[in-house]
Amino acid sequence: MSNNGYPFNYTLTSYLAAGDSIEVHDPITSYFYVAATDVFLMTRTPLQFDKEAVWYKLADKNATGGNFKGDPLCMDISADGNTIFVGFKDGKLFRISGLNSVVDSHTGTIGDSLYAVTVTKLTLPISGQCVTSVAVDPRDDNKVIATCGNYGNEDYVFYSTDAMSDEPTFVSKQGNLPKMPVYSSVIDMTTGDVIIGTERGIYRSKNLSSWTFDSEALGEIPVMELKQQRLFVEDVTTVNHTDEGDFITEYPGVKNTGIIYAATYGRGVFRCENYKKEFASVPETPSVEGNINVNIYPNPVSSQAIVSFDLSESCDVNYQVFDMTGRMLMNQTLGRMSQGNHQININAENLSTGSYILRISQGAKNETVKFMVY
Fold first, then answer.
1. pLDDT tens digits along 87-120
2. Is the pTM of this model over 0.85?
3. Which end of the chain is more exposed for a tag (fewer CB within 10 A), N or C?
């Protein structure tokens, strides 16, 4: 495993004997995509520095579903990592889907019978304008913003609410926005606010019916790039037990989630903390004596998790699942259960990759356990 030594937790589901080995999914592994002239490439080993990366050509100018020909300028990926939208200098927009199914040279090679990718050319209501940015709503990949450049045109912002359909429709959301090139865009991960970088600063819209100038700190300068940090990773501390003693190693996490960064022409990089997310494991609950001994396995989990817990007495039981912002995603009443050990199944298929908190409540008593989804 080549992830630069970064640790992750894994709970064994059975005992290992001397000489046994196990193979587990590495949550640190990343995919890397490159859109270049006439071609779209992918590698599954961008962090494996001990060998040369293996590249799959997922689309080219002869790809089925459209002529992927020309110079790409921008792209954005859906929250589930399965779809990328690519905008071109000559105004073309492509959707490349099925990325999560690319696992080897067969599924990632054009023309192979197992080729897993679908390349679709989408239609924008423009002629000759370059597509300068694409932004996919992290909450709904059907909602996509495409912005355009060039001077002397009527419309520069287009929006779709059915971007994953067979024939998506993009409509102009120019509204009261001055007629000028738009270079960058972001759809906020929590509120859905649309923030765009234009020739004359940043504008923002909550409902895409009107735009508000939101660039007092920057001024009326070109904003060439906007990015929001959408990842959250908690700090990780490991303890290595050796004959020479215990050694503690701390790995810092990612705590700038939600912050938006703006790269300007001539004035450097700015950041906006208005959308920063404050993280808390679980909403505060009264501390009550009693240990429910909750365990979850496998951990990390891909689809189904088994949760075991002990009850000290017969009582009503329920469980909740929270993301790392404290937002409740599941709330299930299990009813009255008897004293002793119990097991339940939890479906994690609809949870995005990341960390979560499971809380089991036994009457007034409760206990939490952290788990990961990959």
1. 999 999 999 999 989 988 899 888 888 999 999 9
2. no
3. N
Residue/partner pairs of 216-220 with CB below 8 Å, 24 or more apart: 217/270, 218/262, 218/264, 218/267, 218/270, 219/267
* CATH assignment, 295-373: 2.60.40.3080
Assigned token pair, 322:
């929270």
Mean pLDDT to the nearest integer, 41-70: 85
Helix and strand element counts for the chain (H, E): 0, 27
Q: What percent of the chain has pLDDT over 70?
A: 88
Q: Where are the chain's structural domains?
A: 32-272, 295-373
CATH for the stretch 32-272: 2.130.10
CA pair distance 173, 166, nearest whole angstrom: 22
Residue indicated by tokens 């494991």: 281
Tell me if domain 32-272 and domain 295-373 are identical in fold: no
Q: Of 85-94, 171-180, 363-372, which gets the smallest average pLDDT?
A: 363-372
